[in-house]
Amino acid sequence: MKRILLLSMCIVPFVLMGCASLDKEQCMQGDWYHIGHQDGSSGKQTSRINNHNSACEEYGIAVNQIEYMQGWKHGIRNYCTAASGFSLGRRGTEYNRVCPAELEIDFVAGYREGLETLLDETQWEYDTNERELNRYSRQLSRATSESDRAELKKEVKEHDNEHDRLEKRIHQLMKRLSMARQRELYLR
């Protein structure tokens, strides 16, 4: 119980800090071009400015939307590349369609390739886990001692849980891959 209390005391401040997009100092400095550039380079949608407005409103500071959008437009060009798309797809992260039309085709092509790579690796992991699950299941059916059976039941359960997790992940990746392919066809 003490560990849980201590852990929650450590985590809660970080969670609360995460609610505001900017702190008082950032709002007061007001480098809106730089903030917009950072958001664009990170693939954040332009609606992120609403979070900044809310954060800075607490300190009586208004966001310069023109500077922010100029920075965002330059930053998004750093994000919307084939390499960045590949990286996003490789992590299995959902694409939020933030790229401008003239940059989106390369980004989506990279995103699709990243998803295909991740799907192949996840499928390999699934197949490997399935072989292990079958091996442990066979051993369990032949085990005679209770201690062996208990250990093998534990292994079967762990591999079965992993089987379910990987199966869901593959389904999710296939759905994202299908959407990426459709988007790529649409853009061509």
UniProtKB/TrEMBL annotation:
UniProt signal peptide: 1-17
Pfam family name, one: DUF2799
Segments crossing the lipid bilayer: none
Coiled coil ranges: 119-183
Keywords, alphabetical: Coiled coil, Signal
Matching InterPro entries: DUF2799
Entry keyword annotation includes Secreted: no
Protein name: DUF2799 domain-containing protein
Organism: Mariprofundus micogutta
Organism classification: Bacteria, Pseudomonadati, Pseudomonadota, Candidatius Mariprofundia, Mariprofundales
